[in-house]
Amino acid sequence: MPPHFIASQDFVKPSLPRHSTNGSKRSRASSVHSPNVRLSIIEEDAAPAMPPRAHHRPFHRRWNLGDPPRSSFESPPPKYSVWDTMGPKGEKLSDVRNNKHIARRGGWRRICLILFILHTLIVGLAVGLSIGLRKKESSTPVSSAKPADSPSSSASPAAFPAGSYTLITYLSTVRTDCVSQAADWSCFPYHTFAQSPREAMANFTWVITSPSSSNFDISSTSNPWSIEFPSTPLQKLNEGTEEEHYHFTATLDKTTTPQLGIQCQFNDTLLEGNLYTRKSRNYPSPSPADPPSSSSTGKFQPWPYAIDIRQTVGGEQNTPQCFRMQAGALGDRISEGLTPKGENDECSCEYKNFGS
What we know:
- The chain has helices spanning 21-32, 59-62, 93-97, 100-104, 107-139, 142-145, 151-154, and strands spanning 163-176, 201-212, 215-220, 232-233, 235-237, 245-259, 262-276, 300-302, 307-314, 321-326, 329-334, 346-352.
- With 356 residues, the chain is of the alpha+beta class.
- Strands 1, 2, 3, 4, 5, 6, 7, 8, 9, 10, 11 and 12 form a 12-stranded mixed sheet that branches.
- The longest helix is centred in the middle third of the chain and has 33 residues, at 107-139.
- The N and C termini lie far apart (177 Å).
- 14% of the residues are buried.
């Protein structure tokens, strides 16, 4: 039979001091050497498995996005004031606004006034500098602004008479000695000065160029109602006298329309022109004879001096050659009623702007 322990009131468990180290060592040793105590095995190589994350977790916690904002669409956001903004040391702008030092110096009104004055001074300085630079640029001569070797500074405008001119003349005389029928020869504008000074006016737009120094060429512009001719050299005659002028000659084919559906051609018609440089004009009205300025070159201006222009052709075989027009083109040649004239029998148109 196992031994029995009889409880007795006389049995008293010995007590040890509370802070005694011997008692703790003795109890620890007795627990270790006790045959009924079994220690658990500790596995050092295997870590406990992590439990899976719950699917019902909030979205922001699942992705570590932090807490969502506390405001929602059902309530307005909290009120914000610039005076509640915190400074680097934890101070607020309201503290700066209520600062006693600023209030003693005049407050925010004085600071704003100082800032406004500084802004005005900066703007005024910028405007003054810009205006001063503009005045300086406008007062600087053009020649000094360009380099000495610039092509535009070395180039000089073409000398007179180079330019583009409108030669205002009147039809002075018409001669029809080269044809057997006077209607075959005609001169634009088909009225002489004696018939009508106003309707006799004929304008020619010609251009004078200078291909080289002291040399000039003249040519007409495209105008079906005027005399057209290619570029022709000008020759200066009677230099230094009152009759000083530039002379030119050109050969062209003149076409007339004596009646509807008939066209006559005068081949090898001679065109002569004299452009005076001193002789004054008196048509259409008197004006001072001053050479045009070089700045007006390129614009058609009235020729300021006297002009006379002549178209002449001599009577001979095959002068003129007349044709019937068919669908806008030359058709059959007409020979009936055309009697050839002599070479000395001339037809001419004479234009000028003086002696009226």
